[in-house]
Write a structure and sequence with these properties.
Strand content: 25-35%
Structural class: alpha/beta
Low-confidence stretches: none
CATH class: Alpha Beta
Bound molecules: adenosine-5'-diphosphate, magnesium ion
CATH superfamily: P-loop containing nucleotide triphosphate hydrolases
CATH architecture: 3-Layer(aba) Sandwich
Largest sheet: 5 strands, parallel
Strand order of the largest sheet: 6-7-8-3-9
Shape: globular
Number of helices: 7
């Protein structure tokens, strides 16, 4: 993957009232680039990441991944796209409490039907890259917020996707671990040559990224 191009993207939720979350959004993201999506609560950050991640179908517009419009993919193709090309990181970590740290990180690779030897090797590599080797047999509930977020980053990187999307990844972290996690996330994505897109209003993150895109709060 070299380039993500977003053209005239609209997300309009049609519930009891109609909400325009994104209005004619345009942007381009390159491989090996770290971009923050900033904007107040309700400005459409999560909606935008969900569209890029293939989790939400936009109302209109195009999302071109190396020229292929993912808004036109069939359900089966979308499953594959999400599994192979996208890693998602959330504010509340989204780990499975009943699974050990090893199992949490292995899960995306099990779903992708990777061989056991390959999975073992990759989990160990990720544990080391994120400096969480000592937790391999532990369960998420025994970890601090910062440690859980490290595991969540490992899960997102597991299948070696080109696109990493992080939705307010420091929202539930204290100041000290916030800095650590962001440094580690950016370092890992740069080293592995990923496109990293972070939705945030954390000023520390804005300072660290290559570029900030500001979403206005739409008033209507
Ligand atoms: N599933 C949904 N149904 C209806 N409205 C939604 C839904 N998700 C988000 N919205 C609305 O869309 C707007 C943008 O939300 P969101 O993308 O979550 O913004 P942010 O992540 O920047 O807070 C908000 O007004 C929100 O209430
Ligand atoms: Mg959000």
């Amino acid at each position: 993957m070299e380039k993500i191009i977003i053209e005239s993207l609209y997300v309009i939720y049609k519930e009891i009232v109609e909400t325009v979350a994104l209005e004619n959004f345009n942007a381009q993201f390159d491989r090996n680039e770290v971009v923050a999506i900033a904007g107040p609560s309700g400005s459409g950050k999560t909606s935008l990441l969900s569209c890029i991640g293939g989790v939400l179908k936009p109302t209109s517009g195009r999302i071109l991944i190396d020229g292929h419009d993912i808004t036109k993919l069939s359900d089966d193709e979308l499953v594959k796209y999400r599994r192979d090309q996208v890693g998602l990181i959330y504010q509340d970590f989204n780990l499975i409490d009943e699974f050990s740290i090893f199992e949490n990180i292995a899960l995306p690779m099990l779903i992708a039907k990777k061989a056991k030897s390959e999975i073992d090797e990759r989990v160990n590599e990720l544990l080391e890259a994120l400096d969480i080797q000592r937790y391999v047999k532990t369960f998420p509930n025994y970890l601090s917020g910062g440690e859980k977020q490290r595991v969540a980053i490992a899960v997102a990187l597991a299948n070696n996707p080109d696109i990493i999307l992080a939705d307010e990844p420091t929202g539930n972290l204290d100041l000290a671990s916030r800095e650590n996690i962001i440094n580690s996330l950016i370092k890992n994505c740069k080293e592995l040559n990923k496109a990293l897109i972070i939705a945030t209003h954390d000023p520390f993150i804005m300072e660290k990224v290559d570029r900030v895109i500001n979403l206005p709060k739409l008033i209507r």
